[in-house]
Structures are given as structure tokens and as C-alpha cells.
Amino acid sequence: MYIYLPIAEVSMHIGIIIGLGGGVGFLSGLFGVGGGFLMTPLLIFFGIPPAVAVSTEANQIVASSVSGVLAHMRRGNVDFKMGAILMAGGMIGSTLGVALFSFLRDIGQIDLVIQLSYVVFLGIIGALMLTESLRTIIRSRTPGAARGKLHQHNWLHGLPLKMRFRRSKLYISAILPLGIGAFVGILAAIMGVGGGFIMVPAMIYLLGMPTSVVVGTSLFQIIFVTANVTLLQSIQTQTVDFLLAGLLLFGAVVGAQFGSRAGALLRGEQLRGLLALLVLAVCVKIGYDLVIRPEDLLSVELVR
Amino acid sequence: MIGRLAAHRTAAPALAGLAMLLAEPAMAAPKQVVADLSNSRVEITSSYHGTELLLFGAYEGVPGDDIILVVQGPATDIIQRRKAKRAGIWVNVETKIWQQAPSFYHVFATDELSSIADERALGNATVGALSGGLSFVSGRDESSNGQGGGTSLASGAAIAGNPEQRNNLRRNMEANGLWQVLPSSIVTQQDMLFRASLSLPSNIPTGDYNVRVLHFRDGVALSERATDMKVRKAGLSALIYRFAHDYSALYGIFAIVFAVASGWLAAAAFRRK
């Protein structure tokens, strides 16, 4: 059964939409990630216009982050103060990101920037995660290896406007989380992702937050950043497809349940290693598309 | 709309047509072609995935007569981009805007267009668009090299007049199914009745369509009939579209509230299990 998506203005088989939601939902449940970095390229691959894919995915991530953050809140794994600072940065960043998105779309370069962002950031994060998980796996097989320091102090910790973050046991400059929030906000708006895959390593390695509060705090601020993107894209470009988001969500909710159960069967470093391979696979696929000669060098787009 | 003799437009075919009429007085002036659509209002509902329409009609013909049917969508600007390799990757380097081109253009005929009439006669009846004419579109070049900070207007006439560029546009529009020429796609019966099946794609642009039927004899358009077709979003898809465009801020807030509520419900359902 096909369903006509009123904003994307294409019809898609309902099985594909729910299947995409379920498949990506399963992986996000398995790995504990939002899955935007998989869903947005897949939607574009299935013929959804890039602008609609990015905006609609932002809307869907609002839902998956809400359902994810509730479990972390119950366990007290959300640093609300840190989350609020990251969110303030994220609001600024995502507002800039949406404006940048419109500009790039007007000059016909949005596809290129989306693709390049994916290649660069998925490449970096994937490579880091892979080496980290391989190191952990090797270390676990060679007992007695020394453990590194939890986090290092560098010039970043000498910035002014210091604030105390009790839940994270940190006393650092507010400029740092504000800047990280803004940077990830820009990427979230352009790439159609929540940005957790950049936010989480940044919180651990740049801010030095304890790993227990990292995921919950990241999800907490992602809700607001993606809600901001949803609202701004709705107003400025009318590219949020409510019907598509709702159907994806339906599949994702079910998929995530199975994913998180499957995740319990695997060890942490194995999961991270597999996730790294998945991230790198997406990076390579998008990079390959940029390098090979397109079938037709000319393409058309109708002005509505 | 009133059908007209294409022969009126140029002197030579008019004389030819007159000569023909004088030679065969028994036929006199042929009656107008009449045509209708099985459905003149196409509704794009949530279950829309392309549709088939039947166009049928009657004409007063003799063996060897031809019918051409043109389905033309609302005029729109078409942005065409060209990619080139820069620093190892393929990027858009050139933008061309085709102004007021048909967003949809399907031509049906009883034969190959080239064997029905010559290009000039087809052009006079404005069905030459896809056979080489495309006279109604004009383009404009925009440099998108990111420098200069503006659009450089090239001579519109020069672009519209370049057959290679028109062929490129045609190839692109045929690839997405919006432009098409389907020769030998009209079935006729006893030189009186004709019918053709219009297959509308799922990516059909909305708007007011113009459907024209032309009756050709010996390379001359004898009679023409035009009828309207409307393509509209309807039902839930129209509702969502109008909501998104007319109350966009409210739509955004609604989308967020819906997402928060369903995320919360999903989490609650998880917990029970």
C-alpha cells in the first residue's frame, strides 16, 4: 500500500517507511544512539527531498529523545544545569544552522554540504570509536595493562565564566559547553541528526563529564535543539512532513524495543566496535557517491 | 475553447488546405474533434500513487488521419544544475533557470510525430515542444561559483535557441517522468473514435492542466479541441499541506507536541513490560 506524503510530495510504500523506522529504531535501541545519521541518508536515498528528510528527521528525533531521556531521568542520570547550558548553545547553533541550510539550498549546494558533513564527521567519529573499542578488546585480553587518566586539564579549562556543575562534578567555564552546544546545533540542523554521536564524545573528552550522565544529558538537550529545528523549518521552509515523521516514529518505537533487548546480549566494546563499523560504512557510501561520476551531470528541480 | 484551423497562421499550408478541400468537395469542412476525460479532476489523496485516466473522443476522419493529444501542466520555473569535478568530488558548478516551462508535458499520438507533420506544422500547433521546438521556454544562466555575489544574466534568447541545451532539459525531464512523447499510443476506430490512456505519475505537479486534442490530415492540423483538467491535493494530504503552509508556526508547534506526546507514550509502554 502506497501512501502519498503531502510535504515531500512523493508517494512511498508504507512498508518501506515503517520498515525504515523499525530497522533504524532497532539499531538505535541496540547501540543507544538516536539513529538520525542513518535515517536521514536513507530517506534521501529513497527519494525524499533532502530538505524534507532533514526537517522531518528532526521532528522524529524529538520523540525518540523524549522516550529515551525519561529512563535516564528516573535513574538521575541527567545533569540539568549542564544540559541547560548546552541547550542554550544548541539553540543559537541550530538557529544559525537552519539559516545556513536555507542559504545553501538557495545557491544549490545543500546536498554537497550535507554529504561532506556526513563524510567528515562520521569518518572522524567512526575511526575514533573503532580504535577505542579495538584497544579495549585487546586490553581485556592482555591483563595488567595500565589505565589512563580520566581526563586531562588543558587550556580549555582556564577560560573565564566558571560554573559549578554538581551532578557532573565539574567546575569549568560555561563558554566551553556553550560553544560545544552551538557547534553541534549547527551540525544537527544541517545534517538532520540529533548530534549525540558528536555530543557524547565531546562531553567525555572535552568537558570531562562522568560517563554515567553523558547520554541522559545529551538526550535532554537534543530534545530542545531538534524541537527548535522542527519549529524553524516549519516556519521558514515548510519542509516538516508530519505524516512521514509519524509513520517513522511508529516503526522506530517497536524497533527500539527489540534493539535494546538484543543489545543486552552483547558486550559494551563489541557494541561500540559494531557501531563504529556501521558509522564508517555510511561514511564510505556517501563519500563514494561524491567521488564517482554521476550518471547524468545535469539535474533538474521544479520551483514550486 | 474553440478549435481553429492551424492553416490560418501561415499562407502556404492554408493554400494547400484550400486546394485539398476543393479537390474533394464531398468531404467539405470536417466537423470538429470532440473529446472528454474519464475524470477531469485528479485528487491526490493519501493513497495516491499515480493514476490512469482515459481520454476519448470522436472525429470525422478518413484513413490515414492522425490524432495528437497534448497534456500540459502549469508553467513553472525549472532549475537545472550541472555538476563538474572539483578537487576530486562532483559538485554543482552551473545553474540554469528555465522560465515558465511546462511542469508536465505528455504527448500522445497515433503515429511517430515526425510522420504526422513536419516540425513547422507541429510548431505552429504548439505541439513541437518535445520534437525539437521548445520555443516557449527561455532560460537564464546563474553562475554559482560563489564569487561575485550575484546572478549573472546571460542572453535569454541565446539559451532558448540552443538545441543541445533544450535536449538536455528534455532528457532530464523525461528521466523524472514529467515530460514524455508516446508515439502510437492512441487507438482509433473506423476513423471516428479515438482513445488514449493517460498514466499520471506519482510525482505529478498540482495545478490547472490543459489537455488539447488535434486532428491532423496530410500534415495539417484541421481541428483542435481543448479541455481542462485539475490536479489537486485532497483529503488528509490537502489538510496537512494547507496546515503546514497557512499556519506554519502552529504546524511546527503541533508537530513538536505530537512528537513529545508519542515519545512519552512509547516510554510509558516500555516501562509496563
What does this protein structure show overall?
The complex is a heterodimer of chains A (304) and B (273). Chain A is mainly alpha-helical and 304 residues long. Chain A has one domain. In chain A, 70% of the residues lie in helices and 7% in strands. Chain A contains ten helices and five strands; from the N terminus they run ββαααααββαααααβ. Chain A has a two-stranded antiparallel ribbon. A two-stranded antiparallel sheet of chain A has the order 3-4. In chain A, strand 1 and strand 2 form a beta hairpin. Chain B is of the alpha+beta class and 273 residues long. Chain B has two domains: 228 residues, Sandwich (Immunoglobulin-like); 40 residues. In chain B, 29% of the residues lie in helices and 37% in strands. Chain B contains seven helices and 13 strands. In chain B, the strands form three sheets. Chain B has a six-stranded mixed beta sheet with strand order 2-13-12-4-7-9. In chain B, strands 1-3-11-10 form a four-stranded antiparallel beta sheet, with no helix packed on it. In chain B, a hairpin with a 3-residue loop joins strand 10 and strand 11. In chain B, helix 6 crosses helix 7. Chain B is extended. The N terminus of chain B is likely disordered. Classes of the chains: A mainly alpha (304), B alpha+beta (273).
Summarize the structure in short:
Chain A has 304 residues and is mainly α.
Output the number of helix runs of chain A. Answer: 10
* Main sheet makeup of chain A: 2 strands, antiparallel
Number of strands of chain B: 13
Strands in their spatial order, largest beta sheet of chain A:
1-2
Pattern of helices and strands of chain A: EEHHHHHEEHHHHHE
Q: So what's the overall shape of chain A?
A: globular
Structural class of chain B: alpha+beta
Helix fraction of chain B, binned, reads 25-40%
- Under CATH, the topology of the largest domain in chain B can be stated as Immunoglobulin-like
Q: Order of strands side by side in the largest beta sheet of chain B?
A: 2-13-12-4-7-9
Basic shape of chain B: extended
**Low-confidence blocks of residues of chain B:** 1-27, 143-159
Number of domains of chain B: 2
Query: What is the CATH C-level name of the largest domain in chain B?
Result: Mainly Beta
Instruction: Identify low-pLDDT runs of chain A.
Output: none
Distance between the termini of chain A: 27 Å
Quaternary state of the chains = heterodimer
* Strand percentage of chain B: 35-45%
